[in-house]
Write a structure and sequence with these properties.
The protein contains 15 helices and 16 strands. With 475 residues, the chain is an alpha+beta fold. Strands 2-6-7-10-1-11-12-13-14 form a nine-stranded mixed β-sheet. α12 crosses α15 and α14 packs across α15.
């Protein structure tokens, strides 16, 4: 390719504290507009902010999880700009002394590890929310002042897919730390993307565009994909590139110019005179570091080592902390050293049931003991795999035992030779072509005949026994 894509991401993460960053107002989502407000978060004259200690602890925890260096001295600054959802006409943020610097996040590109640098994780407060209606715009200040972290990556991402993978990994780690619900629909996690193109081998960055209004990881990927095409066309035709902010139009699938991009000097940063410089004690950092949970990559490595899982299976089971906890309980209870059977069911039928119900794996209301019993019936060939999936569905929706559900559904597998012979004779008579194909050496014909027997037996025939009987009969 002629051009190299260069992408940096700015993730804004709302912390799940009970109160706001600088006042005691509630952070509950969905309350009546402008009900969770006070003189501090509305910026009334004479009101003074005091920073939320729990938010600081959560911020340090997240920064440490990404390998960032926590600054001994950090301060808050005023980022000045004028917008209807910003009641103070400035945002309390951090500029030259952020909470942390120099972290990283590892992703995989074509099965090879790639380290994405994290420039900084810093503290700030959120703005309000504008609601645009037909003839008017309304503002809800409930979100104003909610503690926010900005996670700024280095421009180390080189494709929309890498950006998608970075965000997915980032969200997984945040979920393990339990510092945010990461709900993009509620605005708890938002992402802006900076993208530019440059000639392959060039060192200087090209003119960038900042993309906003992307409310899903897929939206980020789609917006970046469009922007690569747009900027490539501009460079090829020799048109002038302008550093600007662009909005992603989901319905039309295009980015639209919003305004020229501001620089740091446009915000006129200066230290907030109402907030003192923080000195973060090393003992606090050490304590929080000890409290860090086992993170996704560490858990994947342990699942591979302790339970003999493939890395692929381990990654599926550990995509969220609660899914991993549920999966590990199942694996630990499952008898024997070989855990492949239970893992296949977890990432197969169980995950399929969860997806159909639009819930997470751990939210399936299934008794783990009964799940293990079900797999025992399958291994002993007392019921078929197909029948077991029917029982699994019923186990989730009822409180009955596996044994009772099998008995009530008359799902016992037919392995009796006499009972199967009659069905097999009927199938052979009805499928003369497949019989000829099998005798001609076409092995797929046998699978077809077995399938027809399974169909006539309502899925209760033992397919292994059926296959052997058909081969014996036709040879």
């Amino acid at each position: 390719m002629k051009y190299q894509t260069v992408i940096g991401l700015e993730v804004h993460l709302q912390l799940n504290t009970k109160t706001k960053a600088f006042c005691g107002c509630s952070t509950d989502f969905g309350k009546a507009p402008n009900s969770n407000v006070c003189p501090v978060c509305l910026g009334f004259p004479g009101s003074l902010p005091v920073y939320n200690r729990e938010a600081l602890n959560s911020a340090i925890k997240l920064a440490l999880a990404f390998g960032c260096q926590i600054q001994e001295h950090t301060k808050f600054d005023r980022k000045n700009y004028f917008y209807p959802d910003l009641p103070k006409n400035y945002q309390i943020s951090q500029y030259d002394l952020p909470l942390s610097r120099n972290g990283y996040l590892d992703i995989h590109v074509q099965d090879q590890p790639k380290r994405i640098g994290i420039t900084r994780v810093h503290l700030e407060e959120d703005a309000g929310k504008l609601i645009h209606e037909a003839n008017e715009s309304l503002v809800d200040f409930n979100r104003t002042g909610i503690p926010l972290l900005e996670i700024v990556s280095e421009p180390d991402l080189n494709s929309p897919q890498e950006a998608f993978d970075y965000l997915t990994s980032l969200k997984n780690i945040i979920g393990y730390l339990d510092v945010s619900d990461c709900d993009m629909e509620k605005g708890s996690l938002r992402c802006d993307a900076n993208i530019s193109l440059r000639l392959q081998g060039a060192k200087e960055l090209g003119v960038k565009a900042e993309l906003k209004n992307m409310n899903s990881f897929k939206g980020v990927k789609d917006a970046l994909t469009f922007e690569v095409e747009r900027q490539t066309q501009l460079l090829e035709t020799g048109e002038q590139m302008v550093q600007e902010t662009r909005l992603w139009d989901v319905e039309k699938g295009v980015t639209v110019a919003m305004r020229t991009k501001e620089g740091a000097k446009d915000y006129r940063y200066f230290p907030d005179p109402d907030l003192t410089v923080f000195i973060i004690d090393q003992s606090l950092i050490s304590r929080i570091k000890k409290e860090l949970p086992e993170l996704p990559q560490e858990k994947v490595a342990r699942f591979v080592k302790e339970y003999g899982l493939s890395e692929y299976d381990a990654k599926i089971l550990t995509c969220t902390k609660k899914n991993a906890e549920f999966a590990e309980k199942c694996i630990q209870v499952y008898p024997g050293k070989d855990k492949k059977e239970i893992v296949n069911w977890l990432i197969g039928p169980l995950l399929s049931e969860a997806n159909l119900r639009k819930i997470e794996l751990y939210e399936l209301k299934i008794n783990i003991k009964e799940l293990i019993n079900l797999l025992g019936f399958v291994q002993r060939q007392e019921i078929s795999y197909l029948s077991a999936k029917i029982v699994l569905n019923q186990l989730i929706d009822s409180q009955k035992s596996t044994h009772d559900l099998i008995r009530e559904g008359n799902l016992q597998q037919i392995s009796n030779t006499d009972a199967l012979t009659q069905i097999i004779e009927t199938v052979i008579q009805e499928n003369a072509k497949s019989v000829s194909d099998f005798k001609a050496g076409k092995t797929n014909a046998l699978m077809y005949l077995v399938g027809q027997v399974m169909k006539k037996s309502s899925g209760k025939a033992n397919p292994k026994v059926v296959g052997e009987l058909i081969k014996g009969r036709l040879s």
